């Protein structure tokens, strides 16, 4: 499935999903994200990158990482696990 957001008039470009599944597929990253990586923020107290994900209206803590790339990888792995076909993958 291509991500042509302007072509939602044809049925073959749409799929049924719940509101939550649609949220899994939101833009990467959001406007207020300072690091530019979805699900990752800097935790001052621990002095590491913290990875979190929202699943079933609850925040899921995925760990602390010293390296930003490791934190990004952890989020992407969890995204595939929990979001499946609705994972953003970019």
Could you explain how this protein is built, in words?
The protein is of the alpha+beta class. It has a domain at 29-86: 2-Layer Sandwich (GCC-box Binding Domain), CATH 3.30.730. Helices cover 24% and strands 22% of the residues. It has two helices and three strands. Strands 1-2-3 form a three-stranded antiparallel beta sheet, with helices on one face. A hairpin with a 4-residue loop joins strand 1 and strand 2. The chain is elongated. The mean pLDDT is 82.
Main sheet specs? 3 strands, antiparallel
Low-confidence stretches: none
| Class by SSE composition | alpha+beta
What overall geometry do the principal axes of the alpha carbons give? elongated
Number of strands: 3
CA radius of gyration: 15 Å
The CATH architecture of the domain at 29-86 can be given as 2-Layer Sandwich
Tally of individual helices: 2
Helix content bin: 10-25%
What is the terminal-to-terminal distance?
14 Å
Q: pLDDT average, as an integer?
A: 82
Question: Which strand-content bin applies to the residues?
Answer: 15-25%
CATH fold category name of the domain at 29-86? GCC-box Binding Domain
The CATH class of the domain at 29-86, by name, is Alpha Beta
Strand arrangement within the widest β-sheet reads 1-2-3
């Amino acid at each position: 499935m291509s991500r042509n957001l302007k072509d939602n008039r044809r049925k073959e470009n749409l799929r049924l999903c719940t509101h939550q599944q649609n949220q899994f597929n939101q833009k990467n990253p959001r406007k207020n994200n300072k690091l530019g990586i979805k699900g990752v923020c800097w935790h001052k107290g621990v002095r590491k990158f913290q990875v979190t994900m929202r699943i079933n209206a609850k925040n899921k803590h995925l760990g602390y990482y010293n390296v930003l790339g490791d934190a990004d990888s952890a989020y992407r792995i969890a995204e595939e696990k929990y979001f499946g076909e609705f994972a953003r993958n970019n």
